[in-house]
Amino acid sequence: MSDYTTGQYKNALNASQKLGARRTTDFAATLFATPTDGLTIKARAHAWKDNDGPGAAFGYGVANGADVFNCNLGGTAGRVNGNNNWICGTPRFPRPDEIALDVVVTPEIKNILLGNAPIPPNTLQFIFTPQFLDHFGLERHAREASLIVNYEMQGGIVLSSITAAHSDKWAALDDLDKRPTAALGAALDSILLNNADFHDFSQEVRATSAANQSLRWLIGGSFADLKGLATSGFRLPPGTFRSTAIGSVNNAKSQGIFGSLAYDITDQLVINGEARRQYDKISDGIIGGLVLSKTFKSFTPRVILDYKPTDDITLYLSWAKGTRPGAFNPTLVGRPQSELDQINAAVGAAIAIPEERINNYEVGFKGKLWDGRASMTAALYTAKWRSQQSASAVPITRANGTFDLITVIGAGGKTNLSGVEVEAEARATEKLTVEGTFAFNRAHILTRDCSDCQLILGVNNAAGREMSRTPRYKGTASVTYIDKLVADYDWFTRADYIYVGDMFESEANATTTGASSKVNIRAGVENEKVRLEFYGTNIFNDKTFTGYQRLTDFSFAAGRSFLSVGLPNKPAYGARASYKF
Known about the structure:
Blueprint: E1 2-5, E2 9-11, E3 14-19, E4 22-36, E5 39-52, E6 57-60, H1 107-113, E7 137-152, E8 158-175, H2 181-184, E9 191-208, E10 215-236, E11 240-249, E12 251-264, E13 269-287, E14 290-310, E15 313-324, E16 327-328, H3 337-346, E17 352-353, E18 356-369, E19 374-397, E20 403-427, E21 432-447, H4 451-457, E22 473-486, E23 489-500, E24 516-526, E25 530-537, E26 547-552, E27 561-566, E28 572-579
Antiparallel strand pairs: 1-4, 2-3, 4-5, 5-7, 6-27, 7-8, 8-9, 9-10, 10-11, 10-12, 12-13, 13-14, 14-15, 15-18, 16-17, 18-19, 19-20, 20-21, 21-22, 22-23, 23-24, 24-25, 25-28, 26-27
């Protein structure tokens, strides 16, 4: 299968080029067999290749949309528009002439892709030789395979084996400053080249009791071996080369045992208990003579109490504990104290990163209503997230006066999460169905290192603020109408409304995306095997940005900021056809 999407935004530097083009070539095969009674085997293989062009993005900053910088909240970032150094509120949508990316592979950039950076010091490092990427954008080569075997014994006990392996190699080249070189001067152009190579293998075995017993159980074990290698290299003005992840090794071996018990206290009341004991050995290799390896041990229980007042309604209470293994900051190894002081002042990071922890409490409802014509699920939750990890790109000044950009992870964050989520569906008539979802989520930061806060607000902590990229409100509403057309064919029409609330760009809580309201429609005909539909997406041309990222503008020694922005998909119309064998 091949999927190709043309870009929707013209590059102002090349009228014939569209930004945001994506191409995926995909192949998948599944084999399902039942060699004997009680034995089932499912094997699946999947391979795909992504070959994307330059992304649909641009940057607000010096020489490109500087007028949107409308406030100064006391941060240390350099001035962009008069005395302003940042953006408060939602910035305007860019003009066509501002969407302009330098994405021509010059002889110099071709040499960089080949690993031959022409200007010393050459500190860029690469994974792939030769480099398969030859253009701005992304190229990915990925494969995955899985084998699932289930055997049901006499008495209803099921033995299961799940084996899986994945491979993911990708490279991406980006115009980091997202502005025309002519506007900055050739010596001030910045590019970013990322490489990654990930492999994993996992094996799980488990035994499950028969489901028709008042006491049910499950026991199992798992093993996973993950190997990863990544590099992230910048060309920064005036012609210097830096890698923030120099051959970063990300290896993990995980072993775990798990089990669960469920007991019917009464016909209406059930208690479930689950637990997992896990050992995660995280290794980043030997860097600067220091062995970066540690085994993190975790115990993650969960308890659920279900109550069924009727056959169609379930009320539940749950408590669960979760963890995320620790890691390392290999970029800190061997750095002089003057640089470590700058990094600690920004984010307070150390070489070893502790494990994250979360405790979650939830109460909910699941059930059918209106004589089975409607269904609803609802949940109210609260969670305490501790030792929260957060990655930051920290600018530092070297002893020789040059600038560098160091990616580090801090883990001192504390955040309280809470919210409510509802999903409902109702068959208003035999032909008309109405669906809807609603979510309110709050992520309140108690304390967290925040390098963006330092640059925007002049303080190094996001205490009392909300997490970025987390909308408080989300919701959808859908209406579907289906009726008989001719013979065994039905015709249908559907409309979807999708709302995503305002989100902050960073924990500084200054720049917002604005709320998104999109409407999609489709209509067509179908039977048991054939489906033909016509569709329209974002038909009212909602222009809410898909994402923000504040970056330090290394085109200027003054350490100014610029805002990298993802552009939304424009209205699109098309047709789809499918056939089931």
